[in-house]
């Protein structure tokens, strides 16, 4: 085995690495999981990891998040059942709403979801999701209606934006829209 000369005091690197081998094997023999849960390692909550949620997966959404998703679904259903005329400029509405989300909340939309929404902006379900986003942006402003509604805020142990639930809520909504499996479960599209 090669050595690295005087730089490392003539230490035989592979032999030194073998000294770590018993620890690695004994740890893995005793533990079937990594030493730290993913959410703790990432300093985030499972709710914030909604983008990676899969049925039966390791991301388990909180009861509060489930309740909030139910409230979102009710709002979405109200929007989608509105019998009035549909504006023809949803691409512009989407763009201006996403700019607003970025400027006011500092939250960015997923590129793949953006492309999908632009390509299908004539579909009523996409339009309702866009309108719901505009309502969330308004409703989570200081003094907004969602900040005082039951089930629209909760004491989340979130890592970022602890002082602004609106940022947290918009980020969660984007995660739900970006996760096709979760979006289908919540909004059926």
Describe the fold and architecture.
It is a single chain. The protein is an all-alpha fold. 54% of the residues lie in helices and 0% in strands. It is built from 8 helices and no strands. It has helices at 13-30, 38-41, 63-80, 90-105, 111-119, 124-139, 165-178, 180-187. α6 (124-139) runs antiparallel to α7. The protein is globular, with a radius of gyration of 23 Å. Residues 1-8 have low confidence and may be disordered.
Q: Secondary-structure map with pairings?
A:
Layout: H1 13-30, H2 38-41, H3 63-80, H4 90-105, H5 111-119, H6 124-139, H7 165-178, H8 180-187
Helix pairs in contact: 3-6, 4-6, 6-7
Order of helices and strands: HHHHHHHH
Runs in which pLDDT lies below 50 for 5 or more consecutive residues are 1-8
- The share of residues in extended strands comes to under 5%
Averaged pLDDT: 83
Main sheet summary: none
């Amino acid at each position: 085995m090669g050595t690295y000369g005087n730089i490392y005091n003539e230490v035989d690197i592979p032999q030194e690495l073998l000294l770590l081998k018993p620890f690695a094997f004994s740890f893995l023999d005793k533990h079937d999981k990594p030493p730290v849960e993913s959410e703790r390692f990432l300093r985030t909550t499972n709710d914030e990891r909604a983008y990676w949620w899969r049925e039966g997966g390791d991301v388990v959404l909180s009861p509060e998040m489930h309740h909030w998703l139910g409230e979102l679904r009710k709002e979405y259903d109200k929007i989608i059942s509105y019998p009035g005329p549909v504006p023809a400029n949803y691409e512009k509405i989407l763009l201006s709403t996403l700019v607003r989300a970025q400027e006011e909340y500092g939250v960015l939309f997923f590129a793949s979801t953006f492309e999908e929404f632009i390509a299908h902006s004539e579909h009523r379900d996409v339009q309702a999701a866009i309108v719901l986003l505009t309502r969330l942006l308004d409703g989570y402003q200081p003094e907004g209606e969602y900040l005082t509604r039951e089930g629209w805020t909760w004491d989340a142990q979130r890592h970022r934006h602890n002082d602004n639930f609106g940022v947290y809520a918009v980020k969660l909504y984007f995660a739900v829209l970006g996760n096709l499996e979760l979006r289908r479960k919540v909004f059926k599209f």
